[in-house]
Specification:
A 9-stranded mixed beta sheet has the order 9-10-11-8-7-13-14-24-18, sandwiched between helices. Strands 4-3-2-5-6-16 form a 6-stranded mixed beta sheet, with helices on both faces. Strands 21-20-19-22-23 form a 5-stranded parallel beta sheet, sandwiched between helices. The chain is 35% helix and 19% strand. The radius of gyration is 24 Å and the shape is globular.
């Protein structure tokens, strides 16, 4: 990490502290509005080395804001940075009784810490493999993990090619290509793929980067964290069939850690370099005939952290925003350098494990604890005033199967959903308000399997269906007993406000048996926001493999479990990280109950040209 990169890392840590303080105040507003917040007793923060100060700081201050005691376990490569961070927080007044620093060299001690029953939450920044190991160590582990991605920038013929080269190089080789948001692939659309000018500038910009150790203030790229091994070494030294070096990376000294940056041409869709993470200073060049094919290439990985596009055509950008599946989208800028609060950074699919809320986002602290139903006073109303017709139709269809208390709970929850949509989930936000750069925070529908287990209250199922309706989410519904006739008819209707793909009546044992065999996610219907792009079929027609992710299955899948045994379901699913089980008690609060049915996304758009506001992008609908 160079001096400039270290400066931004410390700045991000400071921003995280301010954001955590604001989020703690937000908890007070949420608590009591149809749900009661229960903070975690103890949170273990396991941070990566890619951002040695910012990553542990974000986890620690968020956990403290959530009301939790914290044990910080920094990555072995960043132990000194973690120790300095802990000293700063202790000096600032955080008591040792709330924050402890551990340096565990023994694998068994690490396992004992993660699996200890007094730990209520693990906050991990690292790899999906590490997250999977944690899940194996302890059943039912409450885990929030941010992993990395296979991030690509698309460059179309309408792009400013000079700016595109600048942003691609900065995003690919900042921090020696080791940060989670690094651009590892550039997808050239149409004529850009044949542009000698673009390739010449890309090669020149890469070769002229000054690579040096961090004590050189002129360094533009620093060393690797360790001598490369495994996929990192393969990315630096091995080519697949059809690939060639535009710029071949080479070691620059005897340490094995200082490498010049490289560019490999001819990376094919579906190849190892396309889909497998290589944390190092190597950029892969891919081609696509159309923008649709480029989007299909971006989506055709198990990760979905960051994605970028360079295009001066607002219609192209609008189509791209609608089709690409990632947590952070960047338009006419680099994929790195996200700012806490302004661009909350977290991914979709395998790039995020757990709640799905973004670190630095509006709900990250709130989801570190548990939410329980609050004792309530029945409002004694049989009217459904103030609700959208789509929600009213669901409640009316279910009314015959509910007690009055259950009906009133559902009605109150539906009103809370309305407030949640009006204030947060149904509107876009740009809290920074920079004008020349738009940073739009929005929530997108998530396809979810809803399971209503044996013995679970009927009112809880209807409350969840109402929240899903408010979120416009697609559902597969499984219930242990038949539903009231009108509700069954509504679920089966093609005109239903409920977006239900299928409804099955089955016992808990039958449901678990299907989970064991993988049949929960079959047939592979894809609908709504997750529908495969037509361009994907064009890519497949060229002989590529079908991606593993679908609307309901694959990395990023979610199950809303009402009642039942979450540990048995976790075991049936293989204790992996690709399926998130939301088994919390059903609550009235829309800000909480709607979360399983939504995904958070940030769209960052450069809205100026050389300092002059570009009305096409300043007013682009997102």
């Amino acid at each position: 990490m160079t001096l400039a990169e270290a400066d931004s890392d410390v700045s991000a840590a400071i921003d995280s502290a301010h954001h955590a303080a604001d989020s703690a105040r937000r908890l007070a507003v949420l608590d009591g509005d149809g749900a009661r917040y229960v903070p975690p007793r103890l949170t273990v923060v396991v941070s990566s080395w890619s951002a040695p100060v910012a990553n542990p700081a974000a986890g620690v201050v968020a956990a403290l804001a959530a009301g939790s005691g914290v044990v910080l376990q920094p990555a072995p490569e960043a132990e000194r940075s973690g120790a300095v961070l802990a000293d700063v927080l202790w000096d600032a007044g955080v008591p040792h009784s709330l924050l402890q620093l551990v340096d565990l060299d023994d694998d068994q001690l690490r396992r004992d810490l993660i699996a200890h029953p007094t730990v209520d939450r693990i906050v991990l920044t690292g790899s999906a493999e590490t997250a999977r190991s944690f899940r194996w160590w302890r059943a039912g582990l409450p885990l929030t993990a941010e992993t990395s991605g296979r991030n690509a920038i698309v460059v179309t013929p309408s792009a400013d090619l000079d700016l595109a080269v600048q942003d691609v190089v900065r995003s690919a080789f900042g921090r020696a290509g080791q940060q989670r948001s690094a651009c590892s692939l550039v997808v050239l659309v149409g004529s850009v793929g044949d542009s000698e000018r673009f390739r010449r500038q890309l090669v020149d910009a890469t070769r002229t980067l000054r690579v040096a150790w961090p004590d050189d203030p002129s360094a533009q790229m620093g060393p690797l964290i360790a001598e490369p091994e495994g996929t990192v070494r393969a990315g630096l030294t091995e080519l697949a069939p059809g690939e060639s070096w535009l710029v071949q990376p080479v070691p620059l000294d005897d340490s094995g850690r200082l490498w010049s940056p490289g560019i490999r041409d001819g990376v094919r869709p579906g190849s190892d370099f396309h889909r497998t993470e290589h944390l190092g200073p190597v950029l892969g060049v891919m081609r696509a005939e159309t923008l649709d094919q480029a989007v299909a290439i971006q989506n055709d990985t198990d990760h979905g952290l960051a994605a970028g596009i360079h295009s001066l055509d607002p219609d192209e950008v609008a189509d791209w925003i609608a089709g690409v599946r990632a947590g952070n989208l960047f338009v006419n800028r680099g994929t790195t350098g996200a700012v806490v609060g302004r661009q909350p950074f977290g991914g979709w699919k395998r790039s995020s494990v757990g709640t799905g809320t973004k670190p630095g986002g509006p709900m990250d602290v709130a989801t570190l604890g548990r939410w329980e139903p609050t004792p309530r006073t029945v409002h004694k109303s049989i009217q459904l005033h103030g609700l959208p017709p789509r929600v009213t139709a669901v409640i009316e269809a279910a009314r015959s199967g509910l007690s009055f208390e259950e009906f009133d709970q559902v009605r109150a929850g539906a009103l809370s959903d309305v407030r949640a949509r009006e204030s947060e989930f149904g509107v876009t936000h740009d809290p920074a308000g920079l004008v020349v750069e738009r940073n739009v925070l929005r929530w997108r529908p998530q396809s979810v399997i809803v399971r209503h287990a044996e013995g679970a209250p009927a009112g809880d199922l209807v409350r969840v269906l109402v929240a899903a309706t408010a979120a416009r989410a697609d559902l597969l519904v499984s219930t242990a007993r038949p539903l009231p006739g009108p509700l069954t008819q509504l679920l089966a209707s093609s005109r239903s406000p409920l977006r239900v793909v299928d409804h099955l009546v089955e016992s808990d044992d039958e449901f678990l048996r299907r989970a064991t065999t993988g049949d929960l996610f079959r047939p592979d219907w894809s609908s709504g926001d997750d529908a495969p792009q037509d361009a994907l079929e064009a890519v497949l027609a060229q002989g590529q493999d079908r991606p593993t992710h679908t609307a309901f299955g694959g990395p990023g899948a979610r199950i809303r479990l009402i009642g039942g045994d979450p540990l048995a379901l976790e075991e049936a699913l293989g204790a992996g990280v690709d399926v998130a089980i939301h088994d919390a008690p059903v609550v009235e609060a829309g800000m909480i109950e709607m979360l399983p049915f939504l995904r958070e996304q940030t769209v960052s758009i450069t809205a100026h040209r050389f300092g002059d506001l570009d009305p096409d992008f300043a007013e682009l609908h997102v």
